[in-house]
Amino acid sequence: MSWVFLTDRHVYKLKKPIRYDVLDFSTRQRRLRSCQREILLNRRLAPDVYLGVVPLAVGAEGRLRLGGPGPAADWLVKMHRLPADRMLDRRIAAGTITRAEVEPAAALLAAFYAQAVRARIDPAGYLRHLRRGTRADRDELVKEAYRLPVDDVVRVAEAQLRYVRRSKSTLEGRVSSGRVVEGHGDLRPEHVCLTDPPAVIDCLEFSRDLRMLDPLDELTFLGLECERLGAPEVGAWFMDAYRRATRDEAPPELVAFYLRFRALRRAKVAVWHLRDDGIRLDDADKWIGRAQWYVRAAVASLDAGHVG
Description:
The chain is of the alpha+beta class. It has helices spanning 28-42, 88-94, 99-115, 123-141, 150-166, 168-176, 208-211, 215-228, 232-246, 252-272, 281-303; strands at residues 2-6, 10-15, 50-58, 64-66, 72-80, 181-182, 192-193, 199-200, 212-213. The strands form 3 sheets. It has a 5-stranded antiparallel beta sheet with strand order 1-2-5-3-4, with helices on one face. Strands 6-9 form a two-stranded antiparallel ribbon. It starts with a strand and ends in a 5-residue tail after the last helix.
């Protein structure tokens, strides 16, 4: 959705003039508003990283430059550049990550969720959101072009829909008790920086609906991604910190439900890469393999008996 430019000290993000169902960057004014939202929202978890919005100005000689006088041709988000070797995905890949270095970031997230704005959604609406999302993910993933195990996808989706029916009071209680909040929306290991202080970057600024979620859902998603990278214990460390800080003793069946919800959603995001123009065969195989991994993770959750 953006072009990203790296310098030694800073990062500049220029949003592409695109429009999808969930976002609209088609005009310069819309891109400016999105840049402003990105700064505001990401300062919740990375206040020292997001520096401001910088105009791409047209000088008197007609050349483009960052900042300065002249009309703005477009706008960029300016950030401090974080050390790549301190990002959570890189630390997991190094194979030497410890709980002690994760704890500050886990505490940051736990405090964030405890103070986050509560979702403006009614309990019945939350159930509709979960059902609608599950059906949409299922209907996409069963398409023949993606070469996924259709029976497994359908089995997981049906189990998810049964859980929503049987656990209506549990799910609605998450909303009525204030547990569903305006979170990050895209909490992946590559967005968590284990510096001092820690920082969590790149939230979904373009959709408030996608940021309205249960912290258990979001942290389960992070744990799923850590597991895919080979370190399931790292996700558990984040979850433990959240539970200690918030005394959220939700049943394990709910966590398993969220894991399967995110696994289907990430499988769909993976296969959507096949829509890219000119995608190479090896890239297509990579994304199909990624989607297959998510489907297997969802099936493994079912086979473990965590169905509610």
